[in-house]
Every structure is written in C-alpha cells, then in structure tokens.
C-alpha cells in the first residue's frame, strides 16, 4: 500500500480505527452478522476514541471537518466488517446536511452530540417510488402557520430506528417537481414519526435498515434545512460530499477480502505446494491488488480535494464511488473463487464480504446513476470549452 503522504494526525486516525476494528470488531463480526445485531457497544468504543466527529469542525466538537480522516477510518473499519463500517459512515451521511446547510443554531444544537457519538444520525431520501429518481418524492410537508405537517414513508434508511437525528427530504410544492423539495431535521420521538420493521438483508446485516413513517408529524419551521424549495440541492450536495465515504467502505471490504485470499493461498497446499505459488492464483491476486490500489488512490484524491475547499467535485465523487464499489464486488467474488468451497462457507469471512460488497454498488446512487452523472458532467464540460 502506498503512503499517499497523509499527515501524522491522519495516520494516527487510521491506526486507531484499525486497532479497535481488529481487537473489538473482528471477534464478534460473524456473530453480529448472524444475529443481525446492531453494534451499539462498538459504536460506543468509536465514540470514546473520538472517531465519530472526524467530519465535524472543531467549533462543534469535532476533529476538524476532515473528509480524508473520515474515509481512512471508514476504510479500516470496513476492512474488518462492512456492516459496522456503514453504521459508522451513515451517521455522517445523516449529519452532513446539517453541516452543509444548517444555521449556526442548528449546528450548535445537533453536531456536538454527533461528534461525541452520544447520538447517531440518518438520511431520509429514498422512497418506494423515489430512489435513483429523487424527483419522484411523495413524502409531503404541508405548511401550517409556523409549522409543517409531514406525511409519507421513507424506505431502506440506514440507522433507521437507532439514530436520534434525521435529515429528511420532503415535497412542499408538488407543482415544482424537484424544485419543490425541502429538507428538515426531524428528531426521534417527535409525535407522528415512527419506524417500520428492521429489514432482512443480503449483507451488512448488523446495520439497521428501516422505514421512516410520518403520519401528521408536526415540526416547527426552525427545523427546516436551508430555504424552502432547496431540498433537492441539499440532497445532491450531501451525496457529493459523502460518496467518497462509500468508496472508502468499498475499498476496505475489498482489502479485507484480499488479505484473506493471500493468507489462504499461502496456507492451502495442492499438488505438493501452496497454491500461491501457482501463476494462475498470482495473477488473480495481482489484479485484485491493482484494482484496490487504483480505487484507493481516487477515493483519497477526491477526499483531499474536498478538504482543500474544492467547490466542484460531483463528477469525481461519482467516479470514486463507482470504481471502488465495482472493485469491491469483483475482488470479493475472486476471493470466494480462490478459497473455493471454503470461500462459499460462512466459516470463512469472504462469503460475508461478498454479500457486504454488493450494496456498495447500490446505495447513495446506483452505479448506473453514477455513470449518468459522470456522462452529464463530461457533456457540460465539453460545452464550456
């Protein structure tokens, strides 16, 4: 793995996340997956280690608003368990709209608790008829004096039911389409706000995925994020900032699968010698390692660009998520192949890694949507020349 010239402070974050993951997550990851148990105890350890506020400015109790540090931690956690990794990362996704569009009063109210790990956040965008097409939202927020009444259902929300703070995208004016969307902060426990059952998933099973159900949920206008009608922008800018985190999760899952593949190939003896001595296996491992390093390089580059104050990184953010998640799926599939029958068994972790990898190609915008976004950006850039 290249050094990437990361700072000593960032190296400490990376090493700390790795240490906790190896010592505390590794012994329980199979059990968490099997029982589909939310990793509260592990999240408390991340909180005690001050890892929950890596993406939050020091002013609000965080590490200093570093996307790079957040990606490094997410990668190391996901290298051991993708389910724990997304639980950690999804809180940043839920809090990012507050960081990007919240008033100082809103930031002072919500970000310190997220930074300390006292509370988790979640992001409510997806609906039954609005996933890749965010303009198809049907959850409404109807104005009622100084309040808004929210009705509708959000689907497949990571950290749903466990988080305390929710950034929710609604429609306040159906006649304006995407320009009629408005974002709100909704707190767990608000009357009219409940949750559906915990979903049974292929992978990332220890993470909680639930519906958010709004039935005449009344919230004050002070809970609005940004201006009325800015909801679609809130959602898109949030995803631009957080997609490198999904890239980091995917890189971590892929690296974990490569680690297991190399270990197994060194120990597995066939035809009188370890299979790692076979050129066919070496070529598979070489391709896996190359794809991971290329993905990591792009994820890190985009994270550094965001931290440096770059204003336009939509295309590159999509690229990072795209290449890393495709790599994760390919590498974990090859890992199962290298381990053969053992790779297909739950006793070995690559089976879980392959299941966990698949979702990285789907959430925060499917990879087909990422390609659409990249293509549109190229068209726009070409027209400006």
Automatic annotation (TrEMBL):
SUPFAM superfamilies: Acyl-CoA dehydrogenase C-terminal domain-like, Acyl-CoA dehydrogenase NM domain-like
Domain Acyl-CoA oxidase/dehydrogenase middle: 122-217
Annotated Acyl-CoA dehydrogenase/oxidase N-terminal domain residues: 7-118
One GO MF term attached to the UniProt entry: acyl-CoA dehydrogenase activity
Names of required cofactors: FAD
Entry keyword set: FAD, Flavoprotein, Oxidoreductase
InterPro entries with a match to the protein in the record: Acyl-CoA_DH_CS, Acyl-CoA_Oxase/DH_mid-dom, Acyl-CoA_Oxase/DH_mid-dom_sf, AcylCo_DH-like_C, AcylCo_DH/oxidase_C, AcylCoA_DH/ox_N, AcylCoA_DH/ox_N_sf, AcylCoA_DH/oxidase_NM_dom_sf
Positions of the Acyl-CoA dehydrogenase/oxidase C-terminal domain: 231-375
Domain of life the protein comes from: Bacteria
Keyword Flavoprotein assigned: yes
Protein family: Belongs to the acyl-CoA dehydrogenase family.
Record's protein name: Butyryl-CoA dehydrogenase
Annotated organism of origin: Candidatus Saganbacteria bacterium
């Amino acid at each position: 793995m290249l050094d990437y010239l990361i700072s000593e402070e960032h190296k400490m974050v990376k090493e700390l996340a790795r240490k906790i993951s190896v010592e505390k997550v590794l012994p329980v990851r199979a059990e968490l997956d099997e029982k589909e148990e939310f990793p509260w105890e592990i999240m408390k350890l991340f909180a005690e280690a001050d890892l929950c506020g890596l993406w939050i400015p020091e002013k609000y109790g965080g590490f200093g608003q570093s996307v790079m540090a957040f990606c490094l931690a997410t990668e190391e956690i996901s290298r051991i368990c993708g389910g724990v990794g997304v639980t950690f990362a999804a809180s940043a996704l839920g809090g990012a709209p507050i960081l990007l569009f919240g008033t100082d009063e809103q930031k002072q109210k919500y970000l310190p608790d997220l930074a300390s790990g006292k509370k988790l956040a979640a992001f409510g965008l997806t609906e039954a008829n609005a996933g890749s097409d965010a303009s198809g939202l049907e959850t409404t927020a109807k104005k009622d004096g100084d309040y808004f009444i929210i009705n509708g259902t959000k689907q497949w929300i990571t950290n749903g039911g466990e988080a305390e703070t929710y950034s929710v995208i609604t429609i306040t004016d159906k006649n304006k389409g995407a320009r009629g969307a408005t974002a709100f902060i909704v707190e767990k426990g608000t009357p009219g706000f409940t949750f559906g059952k915990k979903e049974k998933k292929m992978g990332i099973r220890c993470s909680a995925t639930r519906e958010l159900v709004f039935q005449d949920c009344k919230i004050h206008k002070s809970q609005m994020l940004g201006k009325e009608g800015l909801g679609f922008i809130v959602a898109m800018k949030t995803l631009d900032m957080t997609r490198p985190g999904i890239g980091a999760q995917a890189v971590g899952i892929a690296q974990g699968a490569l680690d297991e593949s190399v270990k197994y190939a060194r120990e597995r003896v066939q035809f009188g010698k370890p299979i790692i001595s076979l050129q066919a296996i070496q070529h598979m491992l070489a391709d896996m390692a190359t794809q991971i390093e290329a993905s990591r390089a792009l994820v890190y580059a985009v994270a550094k660009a965001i931290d440096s104050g770059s204003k336009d990184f939509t295309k590159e953010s999509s690229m990072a998520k795209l290449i890393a998640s495709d790599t994760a799926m390919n590498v974990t599939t090859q890992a199962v192949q290298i381990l053969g029958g053992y790779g297909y068994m739950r006793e070995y972790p690559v089976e879980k890694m392959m299941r966990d990898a698949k979702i990285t190609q789907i959430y925060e915008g499917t990879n087909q949507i990422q390609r659409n976004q990249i293509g549109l950006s190229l068209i726009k850039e070409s027209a400006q020349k």
